[in-house]
Amino acid sequence: MKQLLDISTWNRKEHFEFFSTFEEPFFSITCTMDMTIAYENAKKLQIPFFTYYLHKSIIAINKIENFRYRIEEGKVYIYDTIHSSATIMREDKTFGFFFNGIC
To answer: What is the pTM of this model?
Structure first.
């Protein structure tokens, strides 16, 4: 489910209008994180660290409303839930698609 964000009352309206004129209006960051506990938990569960990390990341992302915003046809929508996907190599060297924990 999603709901339309009322841009007219949004405190980020000016930012949206400014950046939406860019050809590629994207922003990203990188940072260093200590993943020792996550790595140890993945090993205890006997699952790949990447799978564990992706699952925990999507849980965290869904807790923050701003990360659930999506621009569609010039309008901003707030999604109830954002999903993730990734390509995962299997032991037999074939690959599968990971979608929110299902591989």
So the answer is: 0.75
